[in-house]
Amino acid sequence: MFKKLHYICRARHGQWSKEKKQNSWASEDLVSDLPGQPKVDFRHYAGYVTVNQEKGRALFYWFYEASTLPDKKPLVLWLNGGPGCSSVGYGATQEIGPFIVDEDRHALKLNPYAWNTEANMLFLESPIGVGFSYSNTSTDYDTLGDDFTANDAYAFLHNWFLKFPSYKTQKFYVAGESYAGKYVPELAELIHEKNKDPSLFIDLRGILLGNPETCDAEDWKGLVDYAWSHAVVSDETHKIVGESCDFSSNDPWSNKDCSDAVGEVLRQYKEIDIFSLYTSICISNSTSSDQTSLQVMFRSTSTLMPRIMGGFDPCLDGYATSYYNRPEVQRALHVSNGLHLKNWSICNMTVFDNWFDSKESVLPIYRKLIAAGLRIWVYSGDTDGRVPVLSTRYSLSSLGLPIKRPWRPWYHNKQVAGWLQEYEGLTYATFRGAGHDVPTFKPSESLAFFSSFLQGESPPSERAKSAP
To answer: Are residues 258 and 344 in the same domain?
Structure first.
């Protein structure tokens, strides 16, 4: 049975109290008895931040201190997409958090490539309806969309800084993947605009985006072209899409030939994992609600065609779902008293189905953030069919940015980790052999890339030489 975290960290608390004092509100959110947690020498906090007192809206967060020198390292907010999927269930639990849910669904194992080795990591379940986040006003759920999400995330940050005031002066970055390709720039734009008021200033330095939804027209064109170029669909299907689909129009799905042909692409992807073309699918004797959700996302109806929910391995999803619905886990994370459980799901289909507004393109925001001098890095796992490398390359190409350093391989541990191109104001990289959730596939490479991003240094463009 593991010892309480405050006991594990006792040796460093004396020194810590001299370096940084947290608000007492933060102390109430200290996680000290998380079931199955390995011993660690950093503190972590979880709980709620109210973003609208009148309507009773509150967002759930999980914050991990950097494993060393947290007072000197930046703060990074991580967002997953969907819309409707949990940053705790994906980012924190399967990808870049320090704890990963084990296969037995009762224990946690340490992630040796956790990003909190480089930064203080803040995971947010956003918007309301995602994970443990909620509103007491039912009509709030009828207006969910991009602007709603950005405004609540912005309110969350300022209220979170009231709990953790010392972090407000540290360098700040926003990162995310998939549909967070829209969340992240939209939030960054809002921060940039509000920073004109000195009292609201947040030291935003840049954004990091993985396999991001960026521009609907380019995203859909890239999805179809990638499926054809990787032998998922026939020449005939690809030709029909090319002849009948105008993805830049207001409603490309009103063309039946286009809708049917794209539906055929999605039907073929049902046979494999669209998020990872070359790995096995999960075979289970039982059908979980999450597996059902992943099947629902492929319905070729006009209402679902403009958007596909994000996700990855339904087996991994099941581990997280079992763990976060345990009474003792919810009690430890300050979600419930362990008696009245909250129903946690890794993706909320109701949020997805009822999404009220979605920007067709965030490329205008890219231009604004580039002009403001923010660091923008974008990366793609090159075996993802959902937001494939082609989609992102099409989107970035349309920006027409001057090339600062041309296309070239980048290296990790003397191997080609992917390819890289640096534009004026933006860096783009691929991860060789990685699917949609890149850190799940390439954890060591992802951590090295993240470190380069924070330092503002290009990843290695040549193999490291062996010592003589």
So the answer is: no
